[in-house]
Amino acid sequence: MPQMRFGQKAKNPKATGSRLFKLVVGKHKLSFTVVLVSIAVSSLCSVRLSLFLQELIDGYILPMTQSGVNDFNALQQALVHLAWILLAGTIAGYLVQRMMVAISMDTLRDIRSEMFRHMEKLPLSFFDTHAHGKLMSTFTNDTDTLQMMITQSITQIITSVFTITFVLVSMLALSWILTIVVLLFIALIFWLTKKLGDKSSVNFKGQQKELATINGFIEEMIGGQKVVKVFNHEEASKQAFDQMNENLRKNADKANSFANVMGPVTNNVGNLQYVAVTIIGAAMALIPGMHFSIGGLAAFLQLTRSIHNPIGQVAQQMNNVLLALAGAERIFTLLDEKPEEDDGYVTLANVNVAEDGTITESKEQTGHWAWKHPHKADGSVTYTPLKGDIQLEHVSFGYTPGKLVLHDISLYAKPGQKIAFVGATGAGKTTITNLLNRFYDIQDGKIRFDGINIQKIKKSDLRRSLGMVLQDTHLFSGTIAENIRFGKPDATDEEVIQAAKLAGAHEFIMMHPQGYQTRLTGDGEGLSQGQRQLLSIARAAVNNPPVMVLDEATSSIDTYTESIVQQGMDRLMAGRTVFVIAHRLSTVQNSQAIMVLDHGRIIERGTHEDLLRQKGVYWQLYTGSTELS
């Protein structure tokens, strides 16, 4: 028997297995029925080949030997019959493999699609609290274990169960005495496997723990090589690694010692069983009253060999099934995550605005937008022009219950105004912008957009009216034009170019031989940080939103590049309501209002000149008496 391996198990394998069974079999009932019938036929053919030995020896070889008459015609017919059995078994085996591959690929396609669609519906808070690496592992490693289970493990287990059943029935038909002998040896093999497996499992867990430790250490050292070399920490790092490596060797040595000895032990027990069956069977064949023939002994010995492989396959594949169930459990956990709720009913609509101010909805692209507000009370619909008037009224919020990050925040931004937030890290600046987008919902207070409570606005429409330029730019694999068009999928080439010019990105884009069709990979590999930021600004500009949020968009670039990016942002901000978060106070001096935040509270507010006259926290920051952290 092959050695068993041990891995992480599902917490609730029964429930996970039941759900997975419905997912796999429920959509492929006919195909799975054909697979089961084909497996049964293949197993019957395999057992029939073993039983043919009895027929061959007792029905043809011994009679011809004893009588001296060679009846080759009968033997030829028997061999033709055997050939048909082989052909039927081969065809059935091919059908099993072909259909299980189709079922597996179809199931994995559906699972990946469902996972990705569901992931797109999850709130931002989910991604803030779950490691991206683990999510990637669910999409790759966990689905791979499912593929292996569906394609190989399920097929082999079902085949093994059919084969074991047919072999045991055939053994009992040949000799119940020898069958008991075989079962006793099988029980002994299982007992030895369990004992050795338990000891191996403990050490395999230790091996996995040490392996995770050493992998984490290597990742840290690769990422921190500059720090290691600056502080001459090479020797200490080597010593720490050698100790971890030695611990891994010890655990792996113990684990694999038990695991590797399992195969020889079980194989030798199997050989002892073969010898015991041969001796007992030969004695039975020589005793006239036992009614046991030489052909029966040959067939029984062949069946004895046939039963060991299926048992070993079940033992091996069950571990793969457990690993796959653990992966399926993580997949179902992702699919069971609560999607982002959206109870908004106020939407954006294209409108025509008459000279008298009358607003009517239009099916054409007019360039004018309004909030379409249906009123449940009387069934009427009103239209509020989209202007970008933002108000926060006594807003309090915390990411976790009982721990507020914002305390009683009130502010307003009229259309076209620039509002700046300054303060130390953790003061609540980015949190305010997250609330404007409804990435999170507030616990208390109200946020109004053009006089409408944003809780009533459909999230997709709310976010369509807001543009964001983040500190950490992210460019997708594709052309420069496609990356800019990400802000407005139906944007024309002219709109893309106009947005790039507005952002100040057109000049460097045209320096590339393929211009806007230049392909980007690796998050804009080959572009400078400033160029990536300009493309991010162009992406926000192409949608032409009335409200812009600039979240520390220039904090990670040098002063010269900042001046270029700042020019693009100034053009982008013109005529819009803008919220700016910045560590560099030079970028917020022209704001209509500057909010100084500290531990989730607005402690100062006013224009740049007003705050300097107050000689408070902002003045200290501006004069260098205090630094942002």
Protein described:
The chain is an alpha/beta fold and 629 residues long. It is 60% helix and 13% strand. The chain contains 18 helices and 16 strands. It has a six-stranded mixed sheet, with helices on both faces. Strands 2-1-3-4 form a four-stranded antiparallel sheet, with no helix packed on it. A hairpin with a 2-residue loop joins strand 15 and strand 16 (601-606). The chain starts with 12 loop residues before the first helix and ends in a 6-residue tail after the last helix. Residues 1-7 have low confidence and may be disordered.
SSE layout and pairing:
Elements: H1 13-26, H2 29-67, H3 72-121, H4 124-129, H5 132-174, H6 176-223, H7 225-230, H8 234-286, H9 294-335, E1 347-353, E2 359-361, E3 369-374, E4 381-385, E5 390-397, E6 406-413, E7 418-423, H10 429-436, E8 444-449, E9 452-453, H11 459-464, E10 466-470, E11 478-479, H12 480-485, H13 493-503, H14 506-510, E12 519-520, H15 529-541, E13 547-551, H16 559-573, E14 577-581, E15 593-598, E16 601-606, H17 608-614, H18 617-623
Parallel strand pairs: 7-14, 7-15, 10-13, 13-14
Antiparallel strand pairs: 1-2, 1-3, 3-4, 5-6, 5-8, 8-9, 11-12, 15-16
Helix pairs in contact: 1-9, 2-3, 2-5, 2-9, 3-5, 5-6, 5-9, 6-8, 8-9, 13-15, 15-16, 17-18
